[in-house]
Write a structure and sequence with these properties.
The chain is 51% helix and 12% strand. By secondary structure, it is of the alpha+beta class. It has 2 domains: 1-38, no CATH class; 86-161, Glutaredoxin. The strands form 2 sheets. A 3-stranded mixed sheet has the order 3-5-4, covered by helices on one side. A two-stranded antiparallel ribbon has the order 1-2.
Length: 162
């Protein structure tokens, strides 16, 4: 029983794998066009993707520059008070307010992998001030990180003592 037929020569095959092997061996010029993508097509596709990303980046940079030139600024959001723990120059032009939970694994990853880079590149140079806000999700749902509320309270007490 032949369910698969080569469209180039009419040879019948009972399995698709047999047809694929036949097409690759006997009709390589068509297999390269109709079958799996060849190397030049893959490279061309990657080139198109890289060009598109470069174009998007250029548009973003130009748009951002035009917005800055027009005096547009970020909307005011979270406010930091003088009592909040902070790193960096109090007169820095940028203030980052970070809401974190003492038991959150993603917050821990931020603190160990991302924050050191921000400190090295921006905080130590006086460009950025980082303000820490403790935000335990246990205030909303006690079953989520059950020890974070106690850690939040302990940190508050430690902060009051200096």
């Amino acid at each position: 029983m032949a369910d698969h037929v080569c469209t180039s020569c009419g040879k019948a095959f009972s399995h698709a794998s047999g047809l694929g092997q036949h097409a690759q061996a006997k009709h390589p010029e068509q297999y390269g066009q109709a079958g799996a993508p060849n190397r030049s097509r893959l490279l061309a596709g990657k080139g198109v993707i890289v060009a598109a990303l470069a174009l998007l980046a250029a548009i973003g940079i130009l748009y951002g520059a035009s917005q800055a030139a027009n005096g547009v600024s970020a909307p005011s959001g979270a406010q930091a008070s003088a009592e909040d723990p902070a790193n960096g120059d109090g007169n820095a032009t940028v203030t980052i307010v970070g809401y974190e939970d003492f038991q959150c694994p993603f917050c821990q990853r931020f603190d160990t992998q991302i924050l050191p880079q921000i400190e090295a590149e921006y905080i130590k140079s006086g460009k950025v001030r980082f303000v820490f806000k403790d935000f335990p999700p246990a205030l909303r749902n006690p079953s989520y990180h059950p020890q974070s509320l106690a850690a939040h309270q302990a940190a508050g007490c430690a902060g009051e003592q200096g």
